[in-house]
Design goal:
With 136 residues, this protein is mainly α. It has 6 helices and 4 strands; from the N terminus they run αβαβαβαααβ. The strands form 2 sheets. A two-stranded parallel sheet has the order 1-2. It has a two-stranded antiparallel sheet with strand order 3-4. Strand 1, helix 2 and strand 2 form a beta-alpha-beta unit.
Length: 136
């Protein structure tokens, strides 16, 4: 995607007129993406297009047992002179903001968000000071 002479997914499917049922992974595609994708391919099709939610992540299925293990490098706590605020202070500010907006929770879904909030850095991804983790 976003490469010269490489069509976007919707354009590719629109060019292949025999595609009427297309699998889509609902865990990796946003609703906006799916709607735009369907719009792109439906505009050139003479038949209705059906998007079918796949079970399981297709990439994981293709990788199977050949997938390399994820790195699990050292995680390094950062001192306050680098972070500007302690984890406790960041959490207090976050909770106050959530209360002010009457929000009951927040989802942190990117590695850098979690690294920032926890004042931790790692090297699991080359050239990025982040680490693999989940946070809820």
């Amino acid at each position: 995607q976003n490469e010269p002479d490489v069509p976007e997914p919707g354009e590719f499917c629109a060019q292949n007129k025999n595609l009427y049922k297309i699998g889509i992974d609902p865990t990796t595609c946003t609703l906006n993406f799916a709607e735009e994708f369907r719009r792109q391919i439906s505009s050139t099709s003479s038949k209705p297009i059906t998007l079918i939610a796949t079970e399981g992540n297709l990439i994981d299925i293709v990788w199977s047992k050949q997938r390399p293990t994820r790195p699990c490098n050292e995680i390094i706590p950062q001192p306050i002179e680098f972070t500007g605020a302690s984890v406790e202070m960041k959490l207090i500010r976050l909770r106050a903001w959530l209360d002010e907006k009457k929000i009951q929770g927040i989802v942190l879904n990117t590695l850098d968000q979690i690294a920032w909030l926890t004042n931790l850095r790692g090297s699991d991804i080359e050239c990025n000071p982040v680490f693999f983790q989940l946070c809820s």
